[in-house]
Write a structure and sequence with these properties.
The complex is a heterodimer of chains A (about 230) and B (about 120).
Chain A: H1 2-24, H2 32-47, H3 51-62, H4 65-78, H5 80-85, H6 87-111, H7 116-122, H8 129-138, H9 143-167, H10 173-195, H11 197-221
Helix pairs in contact in A: 1-2, 1-3, 6-7, 6-10, 6-11, 7-9, 8-9, 8-11, 9-10, 10-11
Chain B: H1 2-28, H2 34-47, H3 53-65, H4 67-76, H5 82-122
Helix pairs in contact in B: 1-2, 1-3
Classes of the chains: A mainly alpha (about 230), B mainly alpha (about 120).
Chain lengths: ~230, ~120
């Protein structure tokens, strides 16, 4: 019990410190989602603790992912007019994005000569974790690998997204939101909120739509690779 | 102090809502996750004025601004996949990075084009 509380408090403390460092030096490689796990993994490895022991305390944080996801409804409600006005842009780009994500992942995994179950595990990774995991199960992937791949996707989107936004001069908050929500689910949403509230709300909607589209197209698109 | 208490109570409301949505999904055998059901349900509650925005706004702000913290434990779970990472880690990483870049290019550029055209039409 004491150990669980220790790992919980430890995670929050490291995250707090990482956030403070990121606020002082806002560099992509200092994003708390990257630095915090690196520090924690190092400490766990050095102290010989297993992940299960760590997770007994840390799971209290994971349990807040779902309430936080539901809180997105508040953002959707507050920015409903912006969403309605941009429905066409959102639907067109999210559909293209979700299909691109699925096909290019499957194709790259195929090119590397990896096995089918790995392909089916990675292909749904752009959807938000709960959806990606269930899609993976449906098309013959390994759900736990999908969960990790989804997470790495979030990290990649979070770090590369701002560079793409800068290079392509994506300056409309609508397009920024779509870019982050479609490519990097919840991690992308938190990044989009760093730009502004509209980008964040659009990203929330893009994430949900990406999840629905992936759920619908995955069983059909995967047949091209079977 | 008062706003701290309000935030805590409101966050508890979101936790309760999440538990309810999960039970509903199991009970009705719905093919979608509880979080999506929760979003739709809460949105309907707000839209039909059953609950007021300021009853839950503080809690939602806190949950959304600390969202990254809640993902940290899942990220740490990567240490359970040492052998997979050793065998195929590089290929997996390149696939994810390559595909994510293409998704961002495609979704971002289409959205930027459409919103630019819209601005021009409005002007």
């Amino acid at each position: 019990m004491m150990q669980s509380i220790f790992w919980l408090v430890f995670t929050i403390a490291i995250y707090g410190a990482a956030k403070r460092i990121y606020r002082a030096y806002p560099k992509v490689y200092l994003t708390p989602l990257l630095t915090t796990p690196i520090v924690i993994i190092t400490i766990i490895a050095l102290s010989g603790v297993t992940f299960d022991t760590y997770d007994k305390g840390a799971i209290w944080l994971s349990d807040l992912v779902e309430p936080a996801t539901i809180a997105l409804a508040v953002m959707l409600y507050k920015h409903l007019d912006v969403l309605k006005k941009n429905a066409k842009a959102i639907i067109a780009s999210v559909c293209c994005g979700a299909i691109t994500a699925f096909l290019t992942t499957a194709e790259l995994v195929h090119m590397f000569g990896l096995k089918y179950d790995l392909m089916a595990s990675l292909a749904p990774r752009t959807a938000t974790t709960p959806i990606a995991v269930s899609v993976s199960g449906i098309i013959g992937g390994v759900p736990t690998i999908t969960a990790v791949a989804t997470l790495i996707t979030g990290l990649v989107g979070l770090t590369l997204g701002p560079l793409i936004v800068k290079w392509l001069r994506i300056n409309s908050p609508i397009a920024q939101g779509i870019l982050f929500g479609t490519s990097a689910h919840s991690a992308g949403i938190s990044k989009a909120f760093e730009y502004n509230a509209i980008a964040g709300s659009i990203a929330s909607l893009a994430m949900m739509l990406t999840a629905f589209v992936t759920l619908l197209i995955a069983p059909w698109l995967i047949t091209f690779f079977q | 102090m008062k706003s701290l208490l309000r935030t805590i109570i409101q966050v508890l409301f979101f936790i309760l809502l999440a538990k309810l949505s999960d039970s509903l999904v199991i009970w009705l055998h719905l093919p979608i996750p509880g979080s999506i059901v929760g979003i739709i349900f809460l949105f309907a509650l707000l839209e039909f004025k059953i609950i007021r925005l300021d009853w839950i706004e503080l809690g939602s702000k806190w949950l959304l601004s600390e969202m990254l913290l809640f993902f940290i434990p899942a990220t740490v779970s990567i240490i359970n996949y040492k052998s997979l990472i050793a065998a195929n880690g590089i290929q997996i990483l390149i696939s994810i990075i390559g595909s994510t870049l293409l998704v961002m290019l495609c979704a971002g550029m289409i959205a930027q084009r459409i919103s630019e055209r819209k601005e021009r039409n409005a002007a």
